[in-house]
Amino acid sequence: MDATDQKLIELLLNGASSSDIRQITHYTEKQLLIKLSKLLSKGYNLGRKYYSDGSISHYVDKQNPTDKIPFSVITAPAEKEIKISLVSDLHIGNLKENLEYIYLMYDYCVANNIHIIFNCGDLIDGKLIGNGKKLIYNYKKQIKRVITKHPHDKNIINFIGLGNHDLDSLVNAGIDIIPILLNSREDLVPVGYGYGVVHIKNEEFPIRHKIKNLTRVKQSCPVISNGHSHRNRISCRYSTPDAAFKVNVFIASLSDVPMGNPAIHPGAMMMDLKFDDNGY
User: Fold this and answer.
1) How far apart, in whole angstroms, are the C-alpha atoms of residue 257 and residue 60?
2) pLDDT value at 243 more than 60
C-alpha cells in the first residue's frame, strides 16, 4: 500500500468529509471514488454518511453488516425540520427530456435551503417503448448523460428509487446503473429498484416506483413518495382501521414526457417534514 492510500485511510478513520478529503488530497470527485473503489477491492469495508446539510463523508465501517442501516440522513439532535424536494421520471435519453427543468429545480433548492432530493425513478429512459422517440438509444450513453449532464451541487444529495425504465438496462443488457452511479457521482445515491427507504431521525421514508414484484411498502411508514404515474396526487388514509395515518404522494414527471392526457402541472414538489422531540 502506497503513502497516498495510507493517508486516505487515515482521513477516513478520522471522519473527514468528502470535501475535506478532496481539498487535502487534491483529488477530483471522480478520482476519490476510484481510490475508494480500489480500497474496497483490497477488502476495506467502506461506508458513506449523508447529512441534512447536503454534505457527505466516507469512512472505514467496522460495524457488523447485518446491523447496518444503508441509507440515513444524519441530523443534529436539535434539528426539528427538514425540507425535501420530490421529483420523478426525468427520462434522460428521451427526446422529451428537459434538462432545463432539472436545473430550475436545483435553483429552487439552492434558493430555499433544500439539501435533500427524493427522486422516484426512471432516471434514464431505457429502451422501453411508449414514451415517444429517443434522443439516445444506447443504455451506457444514457447513463453517461446522467453523470455528465445532471446538475451537481456540493450541498445537495439525491436519493433515487430506480424505476422500470432504469431496470430495463439491467434486465435486457446486464448493465446495472447502481454501481455506475455509486462510482461516478457521490451525490446521486440509488436506494434500490422499485423501492427503497431513507431513514430520517426515527422515521422511515419510502421512495417507490411501480415495478411488478419489486414494489412493497411497510405499513408503518408515514409518507410514501411515488413515481411512475407522471401525475401529481396526494392521498391521505389509514391503511387499516388500527394502522397509522399514511400519506401517499405521487409526483409528476420532470420532463416533457406525458402520461395519458398532457396537462399543466408542477414538475417537482417540496415536502416539509417536522419532527417532535422524540424524532417522530
Assistant:
1) 42
2) no
Distance, CA of 156 to CA of 117 (rounded, Å): 7
**Of 225, 187, 188, nearest in space to 203 by CA:** 225
- Dihedral over Cα of 178, 179, 185, 189: its sign: positive
- What is the model's pTM? 0.92
Distance CA 56, CA 51 (A): 6
How many Å from the N-terminal Cα to the C-terminal Cα in the chain? 45
What is the chain's mean pLDDT, rounded? 89
Strand ranges across the sheet with 157-162:
188-193, 157-162, 116-119, 81-87, 269-274
What is the spatial distance between Cα 109 and Cα 36, in angstroms, rounded to a whole number? 29
Q: What is the pLDDT of residue 236?
A: 84
Residue (of 40, 47, 63) closest to 12 by Cα position: 47
